[in-house]
């Protein structure tokens, strides 16, 4: 479904992403792992058009989407959530998700129908699915960190995606919030049949929900394969454990 | 007509206030009626600025250009062509909207303060053209004694016209703020990157917002022609832009009616203070400093905060 080929991007000579390769099949959950600074977020930024790659290609469902601006990538039904919470702090929880849906339905050029009468059912439905329905009228600046991360995902869902990119969905969450978030991600894949690409530092989560794993080190893909293949791969052990023989996890 | 603006019990108060506004010419002397007209149209100007400043997060620091463009557009058609005066009232705002599109199109590729700087430069360019082009705009003399249709020539009728047009424009802008476009605009203000990522073409939305704001600023300019019968280049000077920015901040730039309130406070205060001292700018400066320190959300923002405090805590400043 998504195919990334030898993608590269440097900043002032620093190769943040250097020959990254990735393929994701429909319905899969694929994790991207790698040490801090390996270029995971930059890779996501390249896929979603926030950054333009220096070289390499991104194909989605056979179509070349390399270098499209983010709003056009989004219209291909690719949504993402961000590692650092990236929401609309002055709007309410409900409005945050609503804007996302309005945008997908191309209603944002409508000047005279009150927003409050549009796509309310769908917004409520999404909030219900992610468990934020009681907090719908709160200004998002007042939410807890965990709730904001969930709202991130809810906003991404507003775009009715086929392909969902989650950048460290559980970063900074309390243990019970993490558990809730993982249930949510699993249900998105199970119930809604979304294809999910995510990155995460917690190996327990990665090996718990991913079908396949791609490992990045210093901007380059060193391996992509099933959990077992990755677990005992020497290059991965090198990167993570400094060359011991112990398998990850 | 104003249903959208009115909520719950407030509705009766609004209706009463509007009826009172329409009755004022029977009790107020002519000078105060003139002052009220100026407050209304300046409030409209400040509200149009707030559409892009408070709701759009675009630092349009030279908004008066569109006010002046609307006023000159109307005045030039009234004095130099034989067209119906009513056409001039449409053309003025359209000129402003077109200017908003042109200046916006150039500036929008920059953001925040860089946008502001470029916008001030281009705005000042328009000002100097108007200021120096004697044969067309009258230069620094401006244009005086602009002929108006008979029905608008009495000060009462000019007031009624200003009041009605201002109310209609406020109603329209309120609609826009509450529309999906308004929601998208507020999203862009809060987080442009995220907006792109949910599929919004940020620049195009901002450009439309700048055009709409320009249009309503142009309406305010045309109203000034009706109320004052004159236009002059100072209407496009950046000090006026600064003053309407202050009106937005003073009234509350995250509230819809804040800029109108800010305009009322500043114009009333200026009129009052100027009878005692020539140092009006000093008073304004001190006032502004106090507002920034004690009422960061403006007067109306402060009031709203107090009202809400019972069940929702105030919004945390970014």
Any guess at the CATH architecture of chain A?
A: 3-Layer(aba) Sandwich
The domain count of chain A comes to: 1
CATH topology of chain A: Rossmann fold
In CATH, the homologous superfamily of chain A goes by the name: P-loop containing nucleotide triphosphate hydrolases
Average pLDDT level of chain A: 87
- CA-based gyration radius of chain B: 19 Å
Describe the biggest sheet of chain A? 6 strands, mixed
Strand order across the largest sheet of chain A? 6-7-8-3-9-10
CATH level 3 topology of chain B: ABC transporter involved in vitamin B12 uptake, BtuC
Average pLDDT of chain B works out at: 88
Measured as a percent range, the helix fraction of chain A is 25-40%
Give the total of beta strands of chain B.
0
Percentage of residues assigned to helices of chain B = over 70%
Quaternary status of these chains?
A: heterodimer
Q: Element order, helices and strands of chain B?
A: HHHHHHHHHHHHHHH
Proportion of β residues of chain A? 15-25%
| Total of domains of chain B | 1
CATH domain class of chain B: Mainly Alpha
């Amino acid at each position: 479904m998504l195919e990334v080929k030898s993608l590269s991007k440097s900043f002032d000579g620093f190769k943040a992403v250097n020959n990254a390769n990735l393929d994701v099949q429909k319905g899969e959950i694929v994790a991207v792992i790698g040490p801090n600074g390996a270029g995971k977020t930059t890779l996501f930024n390249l896929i979603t058009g926030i950054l333009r790659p220096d070289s390499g290609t991104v194909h989605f469902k056979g179509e070349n989407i390399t270098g499209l601006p983010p709003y056009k990538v989004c219209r291909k039904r690719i949504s993402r959530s961000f590692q650092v919470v990236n929401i609309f702090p002055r709007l309410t929880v409900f409005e945050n998700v609503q804007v996302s849906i309005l945008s997908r339905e191309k209603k944002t050029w409508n000047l005279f129908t009150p927003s409050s009468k549009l796509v309310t059912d769908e917004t409520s439905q999404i909030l219900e699915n992610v468990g934020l329905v009681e907090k719908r009228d709160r200004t998002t600046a007042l939410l807890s960190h965990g709730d904001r991360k969930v709202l991130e995902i809810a906003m991404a869902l507003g775009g009715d995606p086929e392909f969902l990119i989650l950048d460290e969905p559980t970063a900074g969450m309390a243990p019970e919030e993490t558990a809730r978030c993982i249930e949510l991600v699993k249900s998105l894949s199970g119930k809604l049949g979304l294809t999910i690409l995510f990155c995460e530092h917690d190996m327990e989560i990665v090996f718990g929900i991913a079908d396949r794993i791609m490992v990045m080190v210093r901007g380059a893909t060193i391996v992509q394969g099933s959990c077992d293949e990755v677990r005992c791969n020497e290059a991965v052990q090198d990167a993570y454990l400094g060359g011991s023989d112990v398998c990850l996890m | 007509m104003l249903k959208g603006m009115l909520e719950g019990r407030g509705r009766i108060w609004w209706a009463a206030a509007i009826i009172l506004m329409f009755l004022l010419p029977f009790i107020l002397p002519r000078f105060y009626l003139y002052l009220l007209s100026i407050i209304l149209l300046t409030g409209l100007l400040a509200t149009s600025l707030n559409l892009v400043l408070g709701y759009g997060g675009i630092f349009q620091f030279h908004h008066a250009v569109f006010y002046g463009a609307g006023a000159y557009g109307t005045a030039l058609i009234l004095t130099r062509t034989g067209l119906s005066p009513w056409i001039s009232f449409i053309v003025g705002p359209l000129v402003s909207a077109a200017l908003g599109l042109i200046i916006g199109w150039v500036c929008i590729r920059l953001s925040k303060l860089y946008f502001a700087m470029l916008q001030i430069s281009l705005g000042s360019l328009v000002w100097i053209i108007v200021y120096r082009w004697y044969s067309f705009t009258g230069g620094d003399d401006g244009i005086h004694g602009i002929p108006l249709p008979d029905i608008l020539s009495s000060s009462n009728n000019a007031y009624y016209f200003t009041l009605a047009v201002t109310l209609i424009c406020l109603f329209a802008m309120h609609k826009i703020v509450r529309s999906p476009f308004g929601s998208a605009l507020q999203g862009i203000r809060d987080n442009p990157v995220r907006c792109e990522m949910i599929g919004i073409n940020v620049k195009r939305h901002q450009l439309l917002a700048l055009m709409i704001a320009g249009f309503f600023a142009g309406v305010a300019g045309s109203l000034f022609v009706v109320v004052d019968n004159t236009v002059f280049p100072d209407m496009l000077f950046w000090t006026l832009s600064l003053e309407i920015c202050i009106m937005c901040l003073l009234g509350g730039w995250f509230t819809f009616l804040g800029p109108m309130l800010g305009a009322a406070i500043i114009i009333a205060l200026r009129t009052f203070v100027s009878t005692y001292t020539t140092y009006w700018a000093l008073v304004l400066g001190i006032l502004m400093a106090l507002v920034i320190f004690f009422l960061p959300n403006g007067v109306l923002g402060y009031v709203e905060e107090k009202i809400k405090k019972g069940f929702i805590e105030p919004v945390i400043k970014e």
